[in-house]
Amino acid sequence: MPGWGIRSAGSVLSVIEMCGVLFTASLLAASVQAEDRLDTVRAEFRAQNDVVKRARLFPKLGNALIAEMRKLESIQQFDAVAPLFLEYRDSATQAYNGLAARGRDAEKHSSGYRELEMHLRQSLHQLDELVFGLPYADREAMRSPQKDIEDLDDKLVKALFPRGSDSHKTPPSPPQTHPLI
Fold it and tell me: What stretches of 102-167 show up as alpha helix (H) in DSSP?
């Protein structure tokens, strides 16, 4: 069959080079697309005036920020991770503060609170991995924002489930003394 013979080394090399170029181009396109997605979601979050809709948008922004931080960490651009981590914390806090300022009971009107809390709870492990992936010298600077995010999640849980707080729990029973035999 014509064309099924052994190819010359030059044509095999050009095919390999072409595959490498295509692979590199696809990675570059994916990177640009991820940055465009982050910019789009960021602009949408900032432009949203309804606090409930803003809180519901935060999971999209949070996921895009985490993806960008992972990408930057994988290519060892550690200095660029910290501003995105702080943006994540500040945006989550902004979403919570907007909901809290409405003065509505989160237990009865959980819309927004629920989505924000679920996203934060699910992302705590991912954020922990991000901090752990940073060089040791950079980790300490991220501990405070990381703690702020954990505290915010605790606030959301307490707002959504106020009856489950420690003040309503039954105190432990006193230890029973057993007679010595």
Answer: 113-133, 136-160
